[in-house]
Design a protein that fits this description.
Blueprint: E1 2-10, H1 15-23, H2 27-35, E2 39-45, E3 50-57, H3 60-68, H4 71-80, E4 84-85, E5 97-99, H5 105-113
Antiparallel strand pairs: 1-3, 1-4, 1-5, 2-3
């Protein structure tokens, strides 16, 4: 399972509405994400609109492609797109900035257990 962290910027004047929309995501969207292989998916929002997402997937590209095939995704992305800045014409589900993972506790512990440094 691959861990993916990403960043987007919510428009400051839309933060409250964005938060409200995510308090009750459409049930068909939730089911589509599950069918498409999105696991342990979370969003974190800072007061200034910095949005950090985290998801575990077998393959980000395959998970995105599976969502592309879901009719509900087009409707959801069309509605969510207006909440973000700097997408340059991309949808939120493809226009995010993926962050590089530089540390994961369990990975390093496993290396240590396998005779790594320590």
């Amino acid at each position: 399972m691959r861990r993916v962290c990403f960043q987007l910027q919510v428009r400051p004047d839309r933060i409250e509405e964005y938060t409200e929309r995510h308090a009750a995501v459409w049930p068909d969207m939730l089911r589509a994400l599950k069918r498409s292989g999105w696991h342990n998916y979370s969003l974190f929002l800072r007061e200034d609109g910095l949005l950090i997402g985290y998801v575990e997937v077998e393959s980000l590209e395959e998970a995105q492609a599976a969502m592309e095939a879901e009719e509900v995704n087009a409707r959801w992305q069309a509605e969510m797109g207006e909440f973000f800045v700097d997408l340059e014409g991309a949808r939120p589900d493809t226009g995010f900035l993926e962050l590089k993972e530089v540390f994961h506790l369990e990975d390093q512990l496993a290396m240590d257990d396998d005779g790594g440094a320590g």
